[in-house]
Structure formats: structure tokens, C-alpha cells
Amino acid sequence: xxxxxxxxxxxxxxxxxxxxxxxxxxxxxxxxxxxxxxxxxxxxxxxxxxxxxxxxxxxxxxxxxxxxxxxxxxxxx
Length: 77
Prior knowledge:
It comes from Rothia santali. This protein has 77 residues and is α+β, with helices and mostly antiparallel strands.
């Protein structure tokens, strides 16, 4: 049982950008994988706001980790 349910309905959590220090809404899924650590089919996900989408994707791409960037709705970019 969740104690917050005793106090009424919980407010829906808003997705937040994964860039350090950013509290903007996460609008994009950045899927990545570190091949030295993860199985090839495993995907980790960072969320990004519009401002940080390219920065986070470039950071992962430079390391060979980037797999896919898509809006939270799921369509591939």
C-alpha cells in the first residue's frame, strides 16, 4: 500500500530533462547503450528538453553510445 494514496490522488509526474541542472520538461527519448557494459539489445534512456536534445545526443554519439533519438511519443528522428 502506498501512503500517498491515503492522502488522495497523486499528481502525475512530469518527465524532466536528464541534463544536469535542467528542470525543463523532457520531450525527447535519447536511447543509448555502452557496449562494454550492456548487452547489444539493452537500451538506457535519457530524457531531453528541446534545448539539450542535441547536446546530450552529441555527447553520447562522440562515445559511440547513441542508438536513437525520438520524441516521447515514439517516432524516430
